[in-house]
Specification:
It is globular and about 85 Å long. The chain has helices at residues 56-74, 110-121, 169-180, 192-200, 203-208, 240-250, 255-265, 294-318, 341-348, 374-388, and strands at 11-17, 21-29, 35-44, 48-49, 52-53, 80-85, 91-100, 129-141, 146-147, 157-168, 185-191, 210-215, 220-226, 229-236, 278-281, 290-293, 329-332, 353-355, 362-363, 394-395, 408-409. The protein contains ten helices and 21 strands. With 413 residues, it is of the alpha/beta class. The strands form six sheets. It has a six-stranded mixed beta sheet with strand order 11-6-1-2-3-19, sandwiched between helices. Strands 14-13-12-17-18 form a five-stranded mixed beta sheet, sandwiched between helices.
């Protein structure tokens, strides 16, 4: 695979390697900072399960195919990308860092903020993990006052709360190498759920307290904002593929036929259908004609989806997050299209649930209404912020454990 090396500083590319497909979104940044979506390359995903690479060669080929498709659709010369990262190995924890303001006037300076950030980066994590990102939540003065801009204020101490997100070093490295070994530079990366949030939530929603729940094929990624800061995130290894697998086993169908059944007739509720409603599956070379009772299909799907929502609900209850969320739970991802999903979520969660809408991009409008693309589109917005602010990215050494030259650590916005 050959990619031309001509520098195109006004073009950004975002890549997401999911369980069902790999997508590469290409956009142009205009001089006024507008993101103009040029197109999205897509390829069937192989060698990736639950957001993690399990067969390097197959995954490498899938990413290559998506990048080639993106080049053909947009005429862009792709030589560097932003990459989203996910996986059930990713964990998060909050830390509180404190420093003494020991100059004569107790005046807070930029150096104190840098010191706190360095201390956050050096917090203990599992030995086989690397810090994926450290998200600043709030600064606190010596009297407990919260300040988002403490420089220039007087205080004897300064504290900062951070959410540290970390994952298995080897899994992160493998995902990056799938891109780098194609002679493509990974210019930056982002936690998948964090990227998704940038495409869906505005500042007011983040301030009020909102949840992003991205139900994909292999995983469900969620992220919680409270008072404008990320307070929790996680990945559950349950997604649309599990519904398909359950249908395949429960109804004794080949996996592909079960997937087709889910997509064409899937619904989590029976209301509106005749009693004993039947679905006829036409004969093909693998299967004789079959009659499926809708009630059987619905029960199988309902149980699995409710299990997912209850896992998340229980975790939020244990962490006492629900009282802090005054906006909505926003559903996105391919599985959010399934009939009845929003209704079930409203039954399980104690706050209102809505189907998410991606923010509108200039340019190609055919992709904005596809929830399975919310992560890669959010990654473009993330890239826009970094490009416009000319943020200086540091080497992966700041993350305590090296992934080589493939990654750069960047401060999230």
């Amino acid at each position: 695979m050959m990619f031309l090396k001509k520098k195109e500083s006004n073009v950004v590319v975002a890549v997401e390697a999911g369980t069902h497909k790999v997508v590469a979104a290409v956009a142009e940044l205009t001089p006024d900072g507008t993101v103009v979506l040029l197109g999205v390359g897509e390829a069937k995903s192989n060698g990736i399960r639950k957001g993690e690479v399990i067969d390097f060669q197959l995954a490498n080929r899938s990413i290559c195919d998506a990048l080639l498709d993106a080049e053909e659709k947009t005429s862009a010369e792709i030589h560097e990308v932003y990459l989203s990262l996910t996986g059930t190995h990713i964990a998060a924890r909050k830390v509180l860092i404190r420093t003494i303001i020991d100059d004569e006037d107790n005046l807070i300076a930029e150096d104190h903020l840098s010191e706190l950030e360095t201390l956050a980066q050096n917090q203990a994590i599992p030995r086989d993990h690397a810090i994926l990102l450290e998200l600043l939540q709030h600064y606190y003065l010596d009297d407990g006052t919260v300040s988002d801009e403490p420089v220039g204020l007087n205080s004897k101490t300064l504290e900062a709360s951070y959410l540290l997100v970390h994952g298995l070093h080897t899994r992160l490295e493998t995902s990056v190498r799938c891109v780098v070994e194609q002679d493509i530079h990974v210019k930056g990366y982002a936690l998948a759920s964090y990227a998704t949030a940038q495409a869906i939530l505005n500042k007011e929603q983040k301030k009020q307290g909102a949840v992003i729940l991205d139900i994909g094929a292999g995983t469900s990624d969620y992220l919680v904002y409270v008072d404008g800061a990320v307070v929790h995130t996680g990945v559950v290894g349950v997604g649309g593929d599990h519904l398909t697998q359950d249908l395949s086993i429960g109804l004794k169908l080949p996996y592909q036929r079960a997937e087709e059944l889910k997509l064409s007739h899937g619904d989590l509720y029976l209301e509106g259908y005749p009693v004993n409603d039947q679905i006829i599956l036409e004969r093909d070379f693998n299967l004789d004609e079959r009659t499926i009772y809708r009630e059987s299909m619905t029960k199988i799907m309902y149980v699995r989806m409710r299990e997912l929502f209850e896992i998340i609900n229980t975790e939020f209850e244990e962490k006492e997050l629900w009282p802090q969320i005054t906006d909505n739970v926003y559903l996105t991802g391919g599985c959010s299209n399934l009939k009845g999903v929003q209704r079930l979520a409203n039954e399980v969660f104690c706050v209102r649930t809505k189907t998410a809408q991606c923010m509108t991009f200039e340019g190609d409008q055919t992709y904005n209404q596809r929830p399975e693309l919310s992560t890669v589109l959010g990654l473009l917005m993330y890239a826009q912020h970094l490009e416009l602010n000319k943020h200086q990215m540091s080497n992966w050494e700041t993350l305590r454990k090296s992934l080589g030259d493939a990654l750069a650590a960047i401060k999230m916005f």
